[in-house]
Each structure stands twice: as C-alpha cells, then as structure tokens.
Amino acid sequence: MISSKHLIRDEDIELEDIGGGLTRKILGYNHQLMLVKVWFEEGAIGYIHEHYHAQSTYVESGEFEVTVGDEVQTLKAGDSFFIPPNTKHGAVCKKAGTLIDTFSPVREDFLKDF
Amino acid sequence: MISSKHLIRDEDIELEDIGGGLTRKILGYNHQLMLVKVWFEEGAIGYIHEHYHAQSTYVESGEFEVTVGDEVQTLKAGDSFFIPPNTKHGAVCKKAGTLIDTFSPVREDFLKDF
Question: Which of A27, B21, B48, B107 is the most exposed place for a label (fewest CB within 10 A)?
C-alpha cells in the first residue's frame, strides 16, 4: 500500500522543476487521494490535457485563466475549480502564484517509485 | 451523479458556521473527491475523530498542533498532513488560519442534499 508520511514539513519535500516555469511538491497521498502544490511563473501554461482522475484545485495565490471543458474563467486566490474524469482542462498563469491540485485516485505517473 | 460546479468563485460559496470558532466553504467535489476550506480562530479545536475517508490537508495559513494516530507536530503555512482511512486525528489552532482539507471519497455527511 503506497502512502506519504502522515506529518509533512514543507522543507522536507523536494521541489521538482517540471519545466516551462512550473515547479511542484508532492504532498500527502495514498492510492485513493493525492495533494500536489504547483508554483507557476507568470506566463507559465498548464496545457490542455485530460486524465481519468477526478481533480479538485484550490487557487492559493496568483491569477489563472482556467479552462474546464468548454468553460473559461479567470480565477484568483480563494477561487477553485473541479475537473471531472476524462475532461479536457488547462490553466494559463496571468500573475505568478500557486495551485493546490488534488486528485482521486493517486497520480501514479507522478510517483518515481510506483 | 453528484458534482459541484466546475469553475467556483470564492464569493459565490456559502460560508458555513460549524461552531467552536470554525467556519468552512465546500468547494469542488464529485463522489470520489471533495475539497473543503476551513477557517480556524485561535484556540479553535478540531477534536480527535476518525472516518473511513482518506484525508489530505494543506496548511494555507496559521499554526496548528496536528495529531495523526500517535504522531503530533506543530505545523504552519506550507506544511501538510495525510490521514489514512479510519485513523484518529485532530488539530488545535495555535494561530488563526486556514486548512485546505481534501477527502476521498466525498464527505457525503457535509452535503445537505445528499
């Protein structure tokens, strides 16, 4: 059974550079659920893509033009979005900030040891 | 099939007073996954409890003494914690702040219309 640690200090988690002005930390997870913090530089793009996982995201800071299916809105700190499984989505960062992305089930493709 | 809206503006979501210095907003969800923002006043307590849902939480602001099973640590903004299903956990707010709680599956007990 895969699982993160239970109590997670920010400074203990590796910051991964995933290219294109995006960095991330993989925080708490098991096979059902994963929480990932993603930093966007201004102008960075989460290109339109889809996956079978459900995704619920909280905008912690910054400003993002978010697309889910055929809906598009500019969202800022405190706003959020939900992506049903197998639904095209993406985000263009208008002001640098962070997203708290959560997935169910786990994004096994994010885990090196999976 | 239950689901929140896809694009969620903070000001459109009801702030629920759940007592004891705690308020919350239920953000994006479907049957698999739910994201909830919880505000704690200083001294507010999330009493030790357990549930069959997995939980992954991000500390957005403030300071919390967090218990998961027999582990206890004081966590602050940027830290996080993971609670396996059926594991006792709680949080005591040491400095006012917000937690981003996520659950899998959905916390059907949080939905009035479920």
Answer: B48
